[in-house]
Structure formats: structure tokens, C-alpha cells
Amino acid sequence: MLAFALTIFLSAFLLFQIQPLIGKAILPWFGGAPAVWTTCMLFFQLLLLGGYAYAHGVASRLSPRAQRRLHVALLLVAVALLAAGALLWGSPVLPPPALKPSDPGHPVLRILGVLSLAVGLPYFLLATTGPLVQAWFARVHPGTSPYRLFALSNVGSLLGLATYPFFFEPRLTLHAQGKVWAAGFAAFAACCALCAARFAASGQAAPPDPAGAADAPEPPPSARQRLLWFGLAACASAMLLASTNQICQEVASFPFLWVLPLSLYLLSFILCFEREDFYRRVIFGPALAVAVGTAALVLSQGFLVSLPKQVAAHTFALFAVCMVCHGELARAKPGPRHLTAFYLMVSAGGAAGGLLVAIVAPRVFNGFWEYHATLWAAGLLAIVVLALDPGSWLRTGRPWPALATLMATLALAAAVRRGDLFESVVFFFSRGVFASFRHGALVAGVVLLSAAALWATRAFWWRPGQPYFAAACLVLAVSLVGTVLLADVQEFRRDAVLLKRNFYGVLTVEEENKEFPEMHLLKLRNGRIVHGFQYQAPDKRDQATSYYSPKSGVGLAILKHPHRDLGLRIGVVGLGVGTVASFARLGDTVRFYDINPQVVELSLGERRVFTYLADCRGKVEVVQGDARLSLERELAERRPQGFDVLAVDAFSSDSIPVHLLTREAVAVYLAHLARPDGILAIHISNRYLELKPVVRGLADAFACDASLVDVSDDGAYWGSTWVLLAPRGDVLARSGIDDDADELAADKTVRLWTDDYSNLFQVVKR
């Protein structure tokens, strides 16, 4: 039994250790976008489905000896491939640098290809272990439940995830992590081969019938049961990826924010399959209602809610949804005879959820609406589960839980919008937007009066054993939640004249002040953050705006540069609307780097919206692709750009591409600066993170002069915070920039960010 337990534990631990490891390794190759992790998860779920299908086919069709020969052979091939990788490019699991993309096209296919080459076969074999080894265990140890091994595998998975950001990532480089992981895989392969030999020696090709069941074998699961397994697994998987996207798009895509949702997902599996009494409908049904309502309220409030509260609300919603889905899966699980079929349907549902979020949603939705859709679908699925269970409170016709849910939903809708009772009814029935009551006291009074009226008239609408009224209340509650979520989508799109989504984010072009020609403008929003705007009046079209005022850090670096009259070469990491081009004069060259083709199209396409680049008086160059990879490639080709000013301003929504603020990244930037008077300008304005300590550490690491340019919002321009770094000489002082800047001082110090280490917790604003 110890061999089986150790094999299951090691496989689960390694299965979930490799996910953040390989995800972090390829994240810089694709711009640090949150969709990188979503695509990685899709790959893992597809291989998991393949592994479960393999386990189901092997366990049901091959003899014990044939199973042993096939599986051990595959394990030996996987170990050999890991050894070959270590010999050929120095790492058994990290992909070779030759696989780095040369352009931003087809990122999903490229990520799937890179992962397949790097860890495809080892991950596939780890994915087969859970159902296959549990099936072996059930045949070697008849009468002992294999579902305890499933709980053990989830414990291993959780430990594999939890130890990565807190133990392995801070202490080991990526290459060292890969070598440790490969050694663990070799140990797993040996344990798995031992289990296969033990199973083959038992000679049992099929699980024995339980005592007394020979005359009445367990019937196969019905189509409805299989569909229920599939739907519950798909909903939980979609919620996992959608909530991870929702969190990462506003902060940063990095391992901890991947691990936290995935850990809660696994924790729900552990609790639900370890002991059935951990999941109780009386607890998690109301928890689901509260969680969905809280998440909907947070979405409607946007930036009025602090970052910790947003993360707490979204992770609470994820956990509640997963507990309900996985709890109902545990209640509906079959006996050991149909174990592999059960796991196959669960993995198929998980893969379907991943496909919906990673592939379908970006093509169907022009915003991150999959989170809204999954929240609503979870509530609807919970009602379906209750309706299918003859013993549920819904089928027995008890109305009070449904009434409480409906009243809570009414209170939620009241909290989302401001207005009065009449306005609420009109908006809900005519426009699909449920406005709120003006005062909380009125809300409470209406709820209490409604409850009293329902109680007084219960003889007319409640018949014991009839579920129609309770079902109607739940359906109405779900409809109201959908209306609240739809209102958030409509609010986001209210002023949009153009809305686009691709792998790299959601772009919205909004029009303002159209009725006032002098103030008429178009602005670009990435996610929920505005990334610049341009006035449309002919005499104001070339005016620098938003974060790029003449007094901003980048404005001072360009306008006060000692070589201003000699012609500047300006580099910009992150195109935005192209505002920096407005500073260029005849003889200047502005070279933009941007990974998002849609951003470039908005400034250079046939139907361009922003004209800063077209109207630029200097020469404009645009390089498509990840800025850091492009700059590294230029250095490798011995083409340093010799920038007089290099501005780094590449954020997706408010999310930071961490790989652009590491020691290795800054070394690349400095190598592209002109000598001796090059200036590196880094934009660190952020709603949630205090980045001064990070840049202070980078300045100290390279012995750079550093000046902080913090401009407050004066109405004409937005507030912005820039840090100017000068690697040598006294260019900041000679140009007079220091007269308009402050010394970069940080309230605290943080460990230097590198490609192998970064810690956003230390810089979260309190």
C-alpha cells in the first residue's frame, strides 16, 4: 500500500509543481499577458484528459502484464527525454531558447507547441497516474476504497502548488528547479514501475464484485449522470480560469496569483472527496449565493474596491463555486467498477471549461465577460442539481431557502444602482438594469414587509411537496443576478466606439465631449485602465496628453536632453496611442516596441483612430513583438539602437509585465542607450503597487543616478510618476532635469527583482 500511496503522492506533487515552473519560464516570451497562464492551463487540462482516456482504455482492454509492459516502456522513454534535454540545452524541462517566438502571431498555438516539446510526455504520464494506479490498487486490494488515494493525490497537488511560490521559487533558479523536478520524476517512475509489477503479479484483469453483488452487478452510469459529471467539472474549471484572468489582468501575471486560485480549486476536491460530510448543502448553498452576490457587487464598483478586497471576493466566489460543483460530484460518484469512466468524464469537463475560457471566450466576447457568464452559470447549475435530486429541499417544496435567496438578490440589486423603488421596477422590466432604492432603510423596510406579506398569505401559494413556487423564486433570483452582471458589462461598453479583444488584452476606444469641438477626444482603454487619449480638434491633435505632459518624466527627458538640438533617437516600450511621438521634431527618430498587433493597427492601420504617428514630424519606426525579446535580438545581432531616451511604459490594464522590470531587463535597456548621455525613463504609476523600491534597487544594482518625477493631476494632464535613470555621467544635472525632479527615495527596500525572483507582496499599497 505504501508503494501505491507514494506513487500517487509523487505524481500529483510533480504534476502541479511543473505548472507554475514552466508557466513562469515561458511567460516573458509572450509579453507577460494573463492569457499565457490560461493557455498553459488549457494544455495541462487537455493532457489530463488524454491521460485519463489512456488510463480508462488501458485498464479496461489490456491484461495486467500488457499494462505493465506498455506503461513502464513509456516511463523509460520519458526519463530518457529528460536526460537528453539536460545534455543538449542544459535543462531537462525548460524549453530551449531557440523556441522563442520571433513575432507575436499565433501565441496560443505556439504556447501549446512549446509545452508539448518541453514537458509533453512526462506530464502525460503523470496525468495517467491517478485513475490508472487507483484502478490497479482496487484490483490488488479488493474491498479497500481507492477514493482515499484520490484525496491523497489532491493533498500532493496542493502541496506541490503551495510550496512553489513560498519555497522553491524564492530559493532556486529556474534551471535548478527544473533539475530538482526531473530528479523527482525519476523517483516517481521507479515507484510507478514497482506498482505495475505488483499489479501484474496479482493477475487480476478486472475488479472483483463486492461480496453479495455477484447476482446484481453495479449498473453502468446513465447518460444523465455522465452529463451531470461533465457539467459540474466544466463549471468549476471555467470558474478557475475565469477568476484567475479577472485577478491577473488588474495586478500582474505571476506564479502566486496562479497558485492561489488553483490551490482553492484543489482544496475543494480534497474536502469533498476525503469525507462526504465536509460538503453540506445547507452550508455551501447559501455560501454560493453570498459569494456570487459579493462578486457581482465588486464588479459593479470597480476601482472603488481595494485590491485585497477584490482578490478576496473573487477567490471566495471561486471556492464557493468549486465546493458546490465538486461536492455534488462526490455525491454522484460511482463505485470502483466505473472509477476510470468517472475520472474520464470529470477530466473531459475540465478540458471543456478550459477550452471555453481560453479559446471560445476570446472569440465570442469582446471583453473579459467569461467571469460574469460563469458566475451566472454556477447559480443556474446549482438549481439544476437541486431539481434533479428527489430528496433536495427544492423537490420537497420547502420555500424558505428560495425566499431568502430571492430577498438577498433584491438587496444586491439595490446596492448596485442608485434610485428609488419606482425607478427600480421601470429599469428592470424595460432596460434590464435593476436600479437601487435611495435609502438603506427603505430597502430593509420593503424586504421585511414583503416577507411578512408572503408569510401571511402562505396558504394561497405554498403546497407541501410542490416545488413550483420555490423553483420560481430561485429562477427569478438567478435572473436578477444575471441582470446585475449584464449591467456591469453595459456600463463598461457604454461610451465605446470600438471594442477589440485578442490574446494580449481588451482594447476599448471611447469618445468623449463630442458636443464640444475643442474638448472632443478619443481615448484608449486597456482593460479598465486608460492608456492615453488624443484631442480631435485640428489645432490640438498634436498636443501631448494624459501621462505624457511636458512636465512628466518622459517629457523632461526629451525636452531637456543635452542633445535636443542635435536630433534625438527615442525608444518607447509600449505604443499606447503613440503620444510620445508628439515630442519629436525634424531630425528625431522615435522607435516604438509593442506586442499587440491591434494596438499598432489603431495608429497605423487603414482605419487608424489615433494619428500621433502619422502626424509625427520626425521619423517613426514600429517593431511588433515583445519589447524585451526584440531588444535582446537586436543586441544579439549587434544592432544596439543608441537611444538618447528609452521610455518603458508597457502595462496591460494596470497589470505589470514583471519581466520588463528585472535586473536582466534593465541590463538590456542600458545596453541600448547612447553613451554617455542616455536616459532610461520608467513609468511606475500604478493603482495597487508601490514600485519605487523596485526601481530604487535596480538603480543601485547598476550604479545609476535616479530622479523621481511625480506630477499631480492639474486638470490639463493626468498625474503620473516616472523614474529617470542615467547610467553614467551627470546628464540629469547638466540638463536641468534635477531641478524639476526629486531624489528617488523608497520607504523600504526589497530584494532585487530578477528573472528568477520577484515578489509583488512586498510592494502592494496598503
The number of strands is 12
CATH architecture descriptor name of the domain at 537-763:
3-Layer(aba) Sandwich
The low-confidence parts are: 205-216, 418-440
What would you call the structural class?
Answer: alpha/beta
Widest β-sheet, arrangement of strands: 7-6-5-8-9-11-10-12
Q: What features would you describe in this structure?
A:
It is a single chain. The strands form 2 sheets. An 8-stranded mixed beta sheet has the order 7-6-5-8-9-11-10-12, sandwiched between helices. Helix 2 (34-61) runs antiparallel to helix 7 (223-248), helix 9 runs antiparallel to helix 10 (307-331) and helix 9 runs parallel beside helix 13. Mean pLDDT is 82; it is low at 205-216 and 418-440. The chain is globular. 56% of the residues lie in helices and 9% in strands. The protein is an alpha/beta fold.
List key phrases describing it:
766 residues; 56% helix; alpha/beta; 9% strand; globular; Growth Hormone, Chain: A; Rossmann fold; four-stranded antiparallel beta sheet; 24 helices; 12 strands; single chain; eight-stranded mixed beta sheet
Concise overview:
The chain is an alpha/beta fold and 766 residues long.
Give a topology summary.
Blueprint: H1 2-26, H2 34-61, H3 64-89, H4 107-140, H5 147-171, H6 174-202, H7 223-248, H8 255-274, H9 281-301, H10 307-331, H11 339-364, H12 370-388, H13 400-416, H14 421-431, H15 440-456, H16 458-461, H17 468-493, E1 496-502, E2 505-512, E3 521-526, E4 529-535, H18 553-559, E5 569-573, E6 589-594, H19 597-604, H20 612-615, E7 619-624, H21 627-636, E8 645-648, H22 663-671, E9 679-683, H23 692-701, E10 705-711, E11 720-726, H24 731-734, E12 742-743
